[in-house]
UniProtKB/TrEMBL annotation:
Residues 21-85 form the RNA polymerase sigma-70 region domain. This is RNA polymerase sigma-70 factor, ECF subfamily. It comes from [Bacillus] enclensis. CDD domains: Sigma70_r4. Gene3D superfamilies: 1.10.1740.10, Winged helix-like DNA-binding domain superfamily/Winged helix DNA-binding domain. It comes from the Bacteria.
């Protein structure tokens, strides 16, 4: 079944494939961009740029990776370009992100859960980018160590050590905010 859907996508025209990619990965790309930029509007702009680049280069996609990995790589590169730009380095941001859905708990538990997510999100956003990106990709995007290593073009052991250091930094940050 999955193979049949994959074959159908390959026979889509360029515009239909782009629409499918945007529907399938648009929110994930925007969330990933937000984890880098910490700004909702800027992350949406970057997501839009990702799909513009995707459309321009869709015919050159070599299928050496999945579409998701390819789009994430484009998004990460665009985010890093933005982070290096002078205007971005001089902006203060206060937004946070969240991906998990509520489980239908009582209002009190919902509120407590939202507050916990907010505190954790803010703590994640204080991490340096190299630690923040592995936390986001591992916990929020549920990628494997190997997938993260391939995506970020770093060694598997580097992913593991960054994730370990990020957890330590997060623990210190969260203990300080209690």
């Amino acid at each position: 079944m999955l193979e049949k859907k994959r074959e159908q996508r390959e026979f889509m025209n360029k515009e239909d494939r782009l629409v499918w990619l945007m529907d399938e990965y648009g929110d994930d790309i925007a969330r990933l961009a937000f984890s880098y930029t910490k700004q909702k509007q800027l992350s949406e702009d970057i997501a839009q740029e990702v799909f513009i680049k995707c459309y321009e280069n869709l015919d050159q996609f070599r299928k050496e990776s999945t579409y998701k990995t390819w789009l994430y790589r484009i998004a990460i590169n665009l985010c890093k370009d933005k982070l290096r730009s002078w205007p971005f380095r001089n902006i203060v941001v206060t937004e946070f992100f969240g991906k998990t859905k509520s489980a239908g708990n009582s209002p009190e538990l919902e509120l407590a859960g939202k507050e916990n997510k907010r505190v954790i999100s803010e703590a994640i956003l204080t991490l340096p980018v190299k630690y923040r990106e592995v936390i986001i990709l591992y916990y929020y995007e549920e990628m494997s160590y190997k997938h993260i290593a391939d995506l970020l073009h770093i060694r598997l052991q580097t992913v593991k050590s960054r994730l370990h250091r990020a957890r330590i930094l997060l623990k210190k940050e969260l203990e300080g905010s209690v």
